[in-house]
């Protein structure tokens, strides 16, 4: 008889926790749409604010890629040189994709060129040699056909014709973002003049 009362007592006590658990489960089930929406928003927020920052250029573009004689080379600088070289290669190959072996060679070539150029500019700086503003202006206005291909690409139309009128129109544009971009281009042109 005591066995039966123990069974009734134990079976009765096991029913109560089930009701409590079912209540919690019902609450979870009812709030599940809100939890899912929160998780989706958090996931999208991560994509936009973490991964998207680099795409928008909002992350620090001064990530040091290498140091040459104490001078820092940014990853952005290496990437720009690599992208320009890849673009030139594609134009030479009429838009064909670049295979993996060629891409490896291009990366090594760009790196070696970047190292050589940096060392050369360090030596030129030590000697006090500079390209003057009038030399850059003369080059742009009097010999635009001899400008570097990477620059001419910005002013080439869909028929692959270099348009000096677009170049001069851009130079006349006084917007701050254009002036800032052109200042960077002038720096690269000065460096190129020192090589020639």
Molecular structure report:
The chain has 196 residues and is mainly alpha-helical. It has two domains: 1-59; 64-195, Orthogonal Bundle (Triger factor/SurA peptide-binding fold), CATH 1.10.4030. Helices cover 74% and strands 5% of the residues. A two-stranded antiparallel sheet has the order 1-2. The termini are far apart.
Order of strands, main sheet, comes to 1-2
* Cα radius of gyration in angstroms: 32 Å
Q: What is the succession of H and E elements?
A: HEEHHHHHH
How many structurally independent domains?
A: 2
Tell me which oligomeric state these chains represent.
single chain
Could you describe the largest sheet, including whether it forms a barrel? 2 strands, antiparallel
Number of helical stretches of at least 4 residues: 7
CATH topology of the largest domain: Triger factor/SurA peptide-binding fold
Strand content: under 5%
Tell me the total number of β-strands. Answer: 2
Helicity range:
over 70%
Average residue-wise pLDDT: 77
What is the correct CATH architecture of the largest domain?
Answer: Orthogonal Bundle
Termini Cα gap:
109 Å
- pLDDT below 50 for ≥5 consecutive residues: which ranges? 5-13, 55-60
By helix and strand content, what is the structural category?
mainly alpha
CATH class of the largest domain: Mainly Alpha
Globally, the shape reads elongated
């Amino acid at each position: 008889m005591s066995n039966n009362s123990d069974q009734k007592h134990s079976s009765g006590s096991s029913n109560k926790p089930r009701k409590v658990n079912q209540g919690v489960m019902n609450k979870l089930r009812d709030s599940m749409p809100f939890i899912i929406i929160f998780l989706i928003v958090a996931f999208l927020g991560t994509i936009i604010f973490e991964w998207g920052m680099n795409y928008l250029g909002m992350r620090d573009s001064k990530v040091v890629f290498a140091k040459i004689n104490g001078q820092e080379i940014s990853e952005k600088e290496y990437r720009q040189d690599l992208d320009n070289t890849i673009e030139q290669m594609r134009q030479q190959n009429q838009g064909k994709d670049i295979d993996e072996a060629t891409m490896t060679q291009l990366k090594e070539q760009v790196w070696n060129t970047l190292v050589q150029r940096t060392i050369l500019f360090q030596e030129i700086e030590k000697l006090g040699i500079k390209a003057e503003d009038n030399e850059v202006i003369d080059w742009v206005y009097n010999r635009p056909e001899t400008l570097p291909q990477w620059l001419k690409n910005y002013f080439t139309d869909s028929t692959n014709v270099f348009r000096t009128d677009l170049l001069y129109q851009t130079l006349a544009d006084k917007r701050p973002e254009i002036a800032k971009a052109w200042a960077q281009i002038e720096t690269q042109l000065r460096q190129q003049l020192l090589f020639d």
